[in-house]
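Dear support,

I submitted the protein below through the web form. The confirmation email said the job was done, but the results page showed an empty box. After a refresh the structure appeared. I'm attaching both so you can tell me whether what I see now is the final result or a partial one.
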Amino acid sequence: MDIEFEIPGKPQGKARARTFYNSKLNKMQSVTPANTVLYENLIKLMFRESYKGDMTLNPCKVEITALYGIPKSYSKKKIKEIRSGRLLPTKKPDADNICKCVLDALNGLAYKDDTQVVDVRIIKQYTEFEEKVIVKIKDI
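What the results page shows now:
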């Protein structure tokens, strides 16, 4: 497998599941927040549109590039630092949460389980174009 696809929109991370006691069922339950479910479904959709083959059963590596828009409030000096690569987006969501969201969404689609992912790289950058996440998956 060797694929690259894009997820349009602002990069999102995996939110924590909400755990609560359900008195009707007399047990604890966990619910994934709706925004996370919607974003994972978008990831699945974009993957399916880009790749028609079978999932890999091999170890693979994944590179995720999260592209953030430059805030309109930034000064010309900050924008110049962004363009030169000296100012990077050190903001939410955390890189590991973006990674978790993408890898979990691709379970059963790109690979049987995300335990097959043995090499991961995540990059957060600013862009002067549309915000998006770019995912590359390659068999090792």
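Response: this is the final, complete result; the empty box was a page-load delay. The chain has a mean pLDDT of 95.
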